[in-house]
Amino acid sequence: MxxxxxxxxxxxxxxxxxxxxxxxxxxxxxxxxAGSKNGEFCAxxxxxxxxGLSYVLLDDALRQLLDRRDALGVVGxxxxxxxxxxxxxxxxxxxxxxxxxxxxxxxxxxxxxYTPPDSADSVGGLLPEAGDRIGMIGFFRPLADRIVASxxxxxxVELNAELAGLQAGYEVTTDAxxxxxxxxxxxxxxxxxxxxxxxxxxxxxxxxxxxxxGPSAGCLPDALFARGVSSLGGSWVTDREGFIAALVAGExxxxxxxxxxxTPADWPGFDALRLRI
Length: 277
What we know:
Layout: H1 3-17, E1 23-27, E2 41-46, E3 51-55, H2 61-68, H3 79-83, H4 85-88, H5 91-112, E4 133-137, H6 141-149, E5 153-157, E6 165-167, E7 170-173, E8 184-188, H7 197-202, E9 209-213, H8 222-226, E10 231-237, H9 240-249, E11 257-262, H10 270-274
Parallel strand pairs: 4-5, 4-8, 5-7, 8-9, 9-10
Antiparallel strand pairs: 1-2, 2-3, 6-7, 10-11
Helix pairs in contact: 1-5
């Protein structure tokens, strides 16, 4: 069974215990922000204020969402119905489904009284050092420079062939099989949305640590931990109004959220949290 199905099965259990809030709004960055990190994510907001993020730069999703906003029928809809599109839909429907699923997760965690801890560092707790061979899925250039500076060897797996080639001290390649030789892996959370998660994790059998990071990594981590992920790092919104205002204006919103990271050691587990709601 896929991660998406495992994740949705957990959300169905939450919905079975108590009525979920409906969708209050879809928040989108302006199209002109798509060329920067300020235009990479949309947010689904539930009636209780819970927010869930999803990446919008796959397959021209942002333009489609902006063009079809009024026709999508998102506002007022049942959150679980929208979330099911993460497992069952394609394109923008899947994008919205993932955001809705993450919004339900935030609602659930708030109701259960769980707050994830702050992220210890920007590289998912991988502790890169000389002798490591680290794989990076998705090109985080500043993080790449930091990893190389630690003395570790680095290979970056990137879907964009235009970025492939030798960089200062590391290689960028479109050949994902390079991950098979890495003992640690740092991945963008976009693999949760672009249908590459299962394949990429399957190539990381030699990795003792696998960290998924990114603002949209707001999902329940149980099924990822079961697949070998050792850390899930996302963004925890602390100022809802400030966050929304910045996102829709195409401005930086990092001051309205904090970076968090969950590991198996500090995660109570879905079943334990479910008993609290």
